[in-house]
Amino acid sequence: EALGRDVNAPPLPEDGPLEIARAGRAFNTMASRIRRFLTDRTLLLTAIGHDLRTPITRLKLRSEFIEDDDLRAKFLMDLDELESMVSATLAFGRDTSRREPMGKLDLTALLQTILDEAAEMHPDIADAIGFRAEPPAVTIHARPVGLKRALNNLVVNAVTYGHGVRVTLLPPRPSEAGETRGEMVTTILIEDDGPGLPPEDLERMFEPFVRAESSRNRETGGTGLGLAIARNIIWGLGGDIRLGNRAPHGLRVTVTLVC
Protein backbone atom coordinates (compact mmCIF):
# COMPACT_ATOMS: atom_id res chain seq x y z
CA GLU A 1 0.00 0.00 0.00
CA ALA A 2 2.81 2.43 0.84
CA LEU A 3 4.59 1.75 -2.45
CA GLY A 4 1.38 2.38 -4.39
CA ARG A 5 1.11 5.80 -2.80
CA ASP A 6 4.79 6.75 -2.84
CA VAL A 7 7.32 5.02 -5.08
CA ASN A 8 10.06 6.11 -2.65
CA ALA A 9 8.43 4.45 0.36
CA PRO A 10 10.84 2.79 2.83
CA PRO A 11 11.74 -0.85 2.04
CA LEU A 12 10.08 -3.77 3.79
CA PRO A 13 11.98 -5.53 6.58
CA GLU A 14 13.81 -8.61 5.32
CA ASP A 15 13.74 -10.66 8.51
CA GLY A 16 11.37 -13.12 10.18
CA PRO A 17 10.51 -16.63 8.97
CA LEU A 18 12.35 -17.74 5.82
CA GLU A 19 9.34 -17.40 3.50
CA ILE A 20 8.52 -13.90 4.82
CA ALA A 21 12.16 -12.77 4.55
CA ARG A 22 12.39 -14.03 0.96
CA ALA A 23 9.13 -12.30 0.07
CA GLY A 24 10.43 -9.07 1.62
CA ARG A 25 13.68 -9.24 -0.37
CA ALA A 26 11.81 -9.97 -3.61
CA PHE A 27 9.43 -7.08 -3.00
CA ASN A 28 12.27 -4.67 -2.26
CA THR A 29 14.10 -5.78 -5.42
CA MET A 30 10.95 -5.17 -7.45
CA ALA A 31 10.45 -1.73 -5.88
CA SER A 32 14.05 -0.81 -6.66
CA ARG A 33 13.60 -1.81 -10.31
CA ILE A 34 10.39 0.22 -10.56
CA ARG A 35 12.16 3.28 -9.15
CA ARG A 36 15.06 2.83 -11.58
CA PHE A 37 12.68 2.46 -14.52
CA LEU A 38 10.79 5.62 -13.57
CA THR A 39 14.03 7.56 -13.05
CA ASP A 40 15.41 6.44 -16.42
CA ARG A 41 12.17 7.38 -18.17
CA THR A 42 12.14 10.81 -16.54
CA LEU A 43 15.79 11.49 -17.37
CA LEU A 44 15.23 10.47 -20.99
CA LEU A 45 12.15 12.68 -21.26
CA THR A 46 13.82 15.75 -19.79
CA ALA A 47 17.05 15.22 -21.76
CA ILE A 48 15.18 15.13 -25.05
CA GLY A 49 13.14 18.19 -24.10
CA HIS A 50 16.22 20.10 -22.98
CA ASP A 51 18.26 19.25 -26.09
CA LEU A 52 15.47 20.35 -28.42
CA ARG A 53 15.51 23.91 -27.11
CA THR A 54 18.74 24.92 -28.88
CA PRO A 55 17.72 23.88 -32.42
CA ILE A 56 14.30 25.48 -31.91
CA THR A 57 15.98 28.77 -31.01
CA ARG A 58 18.23 28.52 -34.09
CA LEU A 59 15.26 27.84 -36.34
CA LYS A 60 13.45 30.86 -34.93
CA LEU A 61 16.41 33.09 -35.70
CA ARG A 62 16.71 31.72 -39.24
CA SER A 63 12.97 32.10 -39.81
CA GLU A 64 13.31 35.86 -39.35
CA PHE A 65 15.22 35.96 -42.65
CA ILE A 66 12.31 34.51 -44.64
CA GLU A 67 11.12 37.29 -46.92
CA ASP A 68 7.59 36.04 -47.43
CA ASP A 69 5.58 37.47 -44.50
CA ASP A 70 2.89 34.77 -44.51
CA LEU A 71 5.41 31.94 -44.73
CA ARG A 72 7.54 33.47 -41.95
CA ALA A 73 4.49 33.80 -39.71
CA LYS A 74 3.58 30.14 -40.29
CA PHE A 75 7.12 29.00 -39.49
CA LEU A 76 7.20 31.02 -36.27
CA MET A 77 3.75 29.77 -35.25
CA ASP A 78 4.85 26.15 -35.68
CA LEU A 79 8.04 26.80 -33.72
CA ASP A 80 6.09 28.48 -30.91
CA GLU A 81 3.85 25.42 -30.68
CA LEU A 82 6.87 23.11 -30.63
CA GLU A 83 8.54 25.23 -27.95
CA SER A 84 5.38 25.07 -25.83
CA MET A 85 5.32 21.29 -26.12
CA VAL A 86 8.98 21.06 -25.07
CA SER A 87 8.35 23.28 -22.04
CA ALA A 88 5.38 21.15 -21.02
CA THR A 89 7.46 17.98 -21.46
CA LEU A 90 10.15 19.35 -19.15
CA ALA A 91 7.49 20.28 -16.60
CA PHE A 92 6.05 16.77 -16.85
CA GLY A 93 9.48 15.31 -16.16
CA ARG A 94 10.01 17.59 -13.18
CA ASP A 95 6.64 16.62 -11.71
CA THR A 96 7.45 12.92 -11.77
CA SER A 97 10.78 13.46 -9.99
CA ARG A 98 9.77 16.12 -7.47
CA ARG A 99 10.26 15.26 -3.81
CA GLU A 100 7.96 17.82 -2.24
CA PRO A 101 7.19 16.85 1.38
CA MET A 102 3.68 16.05 2.54
CA GLY A 103 2.03 18.58 4.82
CA LYS A 104 -1.28 19.63 6.32
CA LEU A 105 -3.32 21.53 3.75
CA ASP A 106 -6.56 23.53 3.87
CA LEU A 107 -8.22 22.09 0.76
CA THR A 108 -11.14 24.53 0.88
CA ALA A 109 -8.84 27.55 0.86
CA LEU A 110 -6.70 26.04 -1.92
CA LEU A 111 -9.73 25.56 -4.17
CA GLN A 112 -10.94 29.08 -3.44
CA THR A 113 -7.54 30.48 -4.42
CA ILE A 114 -7.54 28.52 -7.68
CA LEU A 115 -11.05 29.72 -8.54
CA ASP A 116 -10.20 33.35 -7.66
CA GLU A 117 -7.13 33.22 -9.90
CA ALA A 118 -9.17 31.72 -12.75
CA ALA A 119 -11.79 34.47 -12.39
CA GLU A 120 -9.07 37.14 -12.49
CA MET A 121 -7.68 35.64 -15.68
CA HIS A 122 -11.15 35.52 -17.31
CA PRO A 123 -13.07 38.59 -16.04
CA ASP A 124 -15.61 38.27 -18.89
CA ILE A 125 -16.92 34.97 -17.44
CA ALA A 126 -16.02 35.49 -13.78
CA ASP A 127 -19.68 34.94 -12.77
CA ALA A 128 -19.49 31.43 -14.23
CA ILE A 129 -16.47 30.46 -12.11
CA GLY A 130 -16.89 29.40 -8.49
CA PHE A 131 -18.26 26.88 -6.01
CA ARG A 132 -21.64 25.34 -6.77
CA ALA A 133 -22.53 25.49 -3.07
CA GLU A 134 -20.91 26.72 0.13
CA PRO A 135 -17.99 24.32 0.66
CA PRO A 136 -17.28 22.55 3.95
CA ALA A 137 -13.98 23.08 5.76
CA VAL A 138 -11.73 20.20 4.69
CA THR A 139 -8.14 19.62 5.74
CA ILE A 140 -5.98 16.92 4.15
CA HIS A 141 -2.35 15.76 4.04
CA ALA A 142 -0.86 16.45 0.61
CA ARG A 143 1.95 18.05 -1.36
CA PRO A 144 0.67 21.64 -1.61
CA VAL A 145 2.50 22.80 -4.76
CA GLY A 146 1.84 19.59 -6.65
CA LEU A 147 -1.84 19.41 -5.69
CA LYS A 148 -2.40 23.05 -6.61
CA ARG A 149 -0.94 22.42 -10.03
CA ALA A 150 -3.11 19.33 -10.57
CA LEU A 151 -6.35 21.04 -9.53
CA ASN A 152 -5.45 24.22 -11.41
CA ASN A 153 -4.97 22.19 -14.60
CA LEU A 154 -8.47 20.76 -14.18
CA VAL A 155 -10.07 24.14 -13.51
CA VAL A 156 -8.25 25.77 -16.44
CA ASN A 157 -9.43 22.97 -18.75
CA ALA A 158 -13.04 23.51 -17.64
CA VAL A 159 -12.82 27.27 -18.17
CA THR A 160 -11.09 26.90 -21.55
CA TYR A 161 -13.39 24.28 -23.09
CA GLY A 162 -16.55 24.76 -21.01
CA HIS A 163 -16.49 28.57 -20.68
CA GLY A 164 -16.93 28.34 -16.93
CA VAL A 165 -16.52 25.95 -14.02
CA ARG A 166 -18.51 24.95 -10.95
CA VAL A 167 -16.72 23.13 -8.14
CA THR A 168 -18.34 21.01 -5.44
CA LEU A 169 -16.33 19.94 -2.38
CA LEU A 170 -17.93 17.10 -0.45
CA PRO A 171 -17.38 16.49 3.30
CA PRO A 172 -14.95 13.73 4.30
CA ARG A 173 -16.41 10.20 4.49
CA PRO A 174 -15.09 6.69 5.06
CA SER A 175 -13.63 5.23 1.88
CA GLU A 176 -15.46 2.47 0.05
CA ALA A 177 -14.14 -0.80 -1.36
CA GLY A 178 -12.09 -0.15 -4.45
CA GLU A 179 -11.21 3.43 -3.52
CA THR A 180 -8.57 3.36 -0.79
CA ARG A 181 -7.93 1.24 2.29
CA GLY A 182 -10.23 2.34 5.06
CA GLU A 183 -9.11 5.98 5.33
CA MET A 184 -11.33 9.03 5.30
CA VAL A 185 -11.60 10.53 1.83
CA THR A 186 -13.03 13.68 0.31
CA THR A 187 -14.36 14.18 -3.21
CA ILE A 188 -14.08 17.20 -5.50
CA LEU A 189 -16.41 17.58 -8.49
CA ILE A 190 -15.19 19.97 -11.20
CA GLU A 191 -17.98 20.53 -13.73
CA ASP A 192 -18.46 22.59 -16.87
CA ASP A 193 -21.18 23.11 -19.48
CA GLY A 194 -19.01 22.44 -22.52
CA PRO A 195 -19.54 19.78 -25.20
CA GLY A 196 -18.13 16.93 -23.11
CA LEU A 197 -16.17 14.05 -24.65
CA PRO A 198 -17.00 10.92 -26.64
CA PRO A 199 -17.30 8.01 -24.15
CA GLU A 200 -14.39 6.18 -25.78
CA ASP A 201 -12.10 9.18 -25.09
CA LEU A 202 -12.79 9.56 -21.36
CA GLU A 203 -9.90 7.32 -20.26
CA ARG A 204 -7.67 8.02 -23.26
CA MET A 205 -7.52 11.74 -22.38
CA PHE A 206 -5.18 10.93 -19.48
CA GLU A 207 -2.49 9.66 -21.84
CA PRO A 208 0.38 12.14 -22.48
CA PHE A 209 0.01 14.35 -25.57
CA VAL A 210 -3.57 13.20 -26.26
CA ARG A 211 -5.97 16.05 -27.00
CA ALA A 212 -9.68 16.14 -27.75
CA GLU A 213 -10.56 16.65 -31.40
CA SER A 214 -12.16 20.02 -30.61
CA SER A 215 -9.00 21.33 -28.89
CA ARG A 216 -6.41 20.68 -31.60
CA ASN A 217 -5.96 24.28 -32.59
CA ARG A 218 -3.20 26.63 -31.57
CA GLU A 219 -5.49 28.99 -29.68
CA THR A 220 -6.90 26.46 -27.22
CA GLY A 221 -5.21 23.15 -27.89
CA GLY A 222 -2.50 23.16 -25.23
CA THR A 223 0.00 20.31 -25.32
CA GLY A 224 -2.06 17.37 -24.10
CA LEU A 225 -0.10 16.99 -20.85
CA GLY A 226 -2.39 18.75 -18.36
CA LEU A 227 -4.52 15.72 -17.48
CA ALA A 228 -1.52 13.38 -17.48
CA ILE A 229 0.27 15.64 -14.99
CA ALA A 230 -2.87 15.96 -12.85
CA ARG A 231 -3.36 12.19 -12.66
CA ASN A 232 0.30 11.54 -11.84
CA ILE A 233 0.12 13.99 -8.94
CA ILE A 234 -3.22 12.76 -7.61
CA TRP A 235 -2.22 9.09 -7.88
CA GLY A 236 1.00 9.99 -6.06
CA LEU A 237 -1.13 11.23 -3.16
CA GLY A 238 -3.05 7.93 -3.01
CA GLY A 239 -6.12 9.48 -4.63
CA ASP A 240 -7.96 8.91 -7.88
CA ILE A 241 -9.36 10.93 -10.78
CA ARG A 242 -12.08 10.09 -13.29
CA LEU A 243 -13.78 11.84 -16.20
CA GLY A 244 -17.49 11.57 -16.96
CA ASN A 245 -20.04 13.32 -19.15
CA ARG A 246 -22.92 15.31 -17.66
CA ALA A 247 -26.49 15.44 -18.93
CA PRO A 248 -27.50 17.07 -21.22
CA HIS A 249 -23.92 18.21 -21.91
CA GLY A 250 -20.73 19.10 -20.11
CA LEU A 251 -17.86 17.30 -18.43
CA ARG A 252 -17.43 16.25 -14.80
CA VAL A 253 -14.02 15.53 -13.27
CA THR A 254 -14.25 13.53 -10.03
CA VAL A 255 -11.19 13.75 -7.79
CA THR A 256 -10.93 11.59 -4.67
CA LEU A 257 -8.28 12.51 -2.10
CA VAL A 258 -7.25 10.83 1.13
CA CYS A 259 -7.68 13.04 4.16
Automatic annotation (TrEMBL):
<dbReference type="InterPro" id="IPR003660">
    <property type="entry name" value="HAMP_dom"/>
</dbReference>
<keyword id="KW-0597">Phosphoprotein</keyword>
<dbReference type="InterPro" id="IPR004358">
    <property type="entry name" value="Sig_transdc_His_kin-like_C"/>
</dbReference>
<dbReference type="GO" id="GO:0005886">
    <property type="term" value="C:plasma membrane"/>
</dbReference>
<keyword id="KW-1133">Transmembrane helix</keyword>
<keyword id="KW-0812">Transmembrane</keyword>
<dbReference type="InterPro" id="IPR036890">
    <property type="entry name" value="HATPase_C_sf"/>
</dbReference>
<protein>
    <recommendedName>
        <fullName>histidine kinase</fullName>
        <ecNumber>2.7.13.3</ecNumber>
    </recommendedName>
</protein>
<dbReference type="InterPro" id="IPR005467">
    <property type="entry name" value="His_kinase_dom"/>
</dbReference>
<keyword id="KW-0902">Two-component regulatory system</keyword>
<dbReference type="InterPro" id="IPR036097">
    <property type="entry name" value="HisK_dim/P_sf"/>
</dbReference>
<feature type="domain" description="Histidine kinase">
    <location>
        <begin position="47"/>
        <end position="259"/>
    </location>
</feature>
<keyword id="KW-0808">Transferase</keyword>
<dbReference type="InterPro" id="IPR003661">
    <property type="entry name" value="HisK_dim/P_dom"/>
</dbReference>
<feature type="domain" description="HAMP">
    <location>
        <begin position="11"/>
        <end position="39"/>
    </location>
</feature>
<dbReference type="Pfam" id="PF02518">
    <property type="entry name" value="HATPase_c"/>
</dbReference>
<keyword id="KW-0472">Membrane</keyword>
<dbReference type="InterPro" id="IPR050980">
    <property type="entry name" value="2C_sensor_his_kinase"/>
</dbReference>
<dbReference type="GO" id="GO:0000155">
    <property type="term" value="F:phosphorelay sensor kinase activity"/>
</dbReference>
<keyword id="KW-0997">Cell inner membrane</keyword>
<keyword id="KW-0067">ATP-binding</keyword>
<keyword id="KW-0418">Kinase</keyword>
<keyword id="KW-0547">Nucleotide-binding</keyword>
<dbReference type="GO" id="GO:0005524">
    <property type="term" value="F:ATP binding"/>
</dbReference>
<dbReference type="InterPro" id="IPR003594">
    <property type="entry name" value="HATPase_dom"/>
</dbReference>
<keyword id="KW-1003">Cell membrane</keyword>
